[in-house]
Amino acid sequence: MEKAEHILVVDDHDEIRDLLGQYLTRHGMEVTLALDGTTMREQLKKHDDFDLIVLDLMMPGEDGLSLCRHVRSIDGPPIIMLTAMGEEADRIVGLEMGADDYIAKPFSPRELLARIKAVLRRSSRKGKPEKSTESSGRLHFENWTLDNNLRQLENDKELVIPLSTAEYRLLSAFTSNPRRVLSRDQLLDITQGREAMPFDRSIDNQVSRLRRKVEQDPKNPTLIKTVWGGGYMFTPEVTQ
Asked: Domain 6-123's class?
């Protein structure tokens, strides 16, 4: 039987903390509750199997930003921060410190559950596609060659097609995972990692730009296919 995800909920409001604990438990998750930073640190020492932390930003004593910094310093689990609606600057700082997502109060437990599942999918290492931005050598597909040493794309007439850093990372991800459906979350994780913003749609824009460079007809792509409800698939055979 697959082990339930273990979630640590940290919030000084008893009602919110207990409500989230009960809701997540009903949806098959193991939940540990902490009412402040001191309790959270104690739980982190006691348990090494937390899959995600739901962390309130504003708490008496040590605040969420300091706790987020601590979790990142020990290479801890992903973090979703709970923030008040008007704390945009603090949300940005939280993301810069390594929070993986945030949700503004008031929120519905259902929305938080959806965010938790999305972050867990992105952070999961099970069946994770190969990260490929440090690949070496030359890879060939269709009439193209991707030179990973020079980080450039050449056509069959040896004409160099310039690639931005984002375009190179994306194409490198595709050529390392050919004929495999990659979700937007997986592509974000491969190409940007923790630099990616939550629910970032920039992958769609990058795919569109990349298609304009490698597809004969970008409006009817054959190399980078959209898989509705799934993500994208790189269809050609890739050889060295």
From this structure: alpha beta
Amino acid at 131: K
How is 171-225 classified by DSSP, letter by letter?
HHHHHHSTT-EE-HHHHHHHHTGGGSPTT--HHHHHHHHHHHHH-SSTTS-SSEE
Q: Which of 178, 181, 176, 231 is nearest to 203 (CA)?
A: 231
Q: Write out pLDDT tens, residues 86-109.
A: 556 666 666 667 777 888 888 889
User: For residues 45 and 38, what is the distance between their CA atoms, to the nearest angstrom?
Assistant: 11
Q: What pLDDT score was predicted for residue 210?
A: 92
- For the chain, the farthest-separated pair of C-alpha atoms sits apart, in whole angstroms, at 67
DSSP 124: -
Segment 57-81 mean pLDDT = 88
Per the CB < 8 A criterion, the answer to whether 199 and 154 are in contact is: no
Looking at the domain 138-234, which fold is it?
A: Arc Repressor Mutant, subunit A (1.10.10)
Phi, then psi, of 99 in degrees rounded to 5:
-65, 145
Supply angle C-alpha 154, 160, 165, rounded to 5.
90
Q: What does the alpha-carbon distance between residue 224 and residue 200 come to, in Å, rounded to a whole number?
A: 19
Could you tell me the residue ranges of all domains in the chain? Answer: 6-123, 138-234
pTM: 0.55
CA 240 – CA 226 distance, rounded (Å): 25
Contact 118, 101 (CB under 8 A): yes
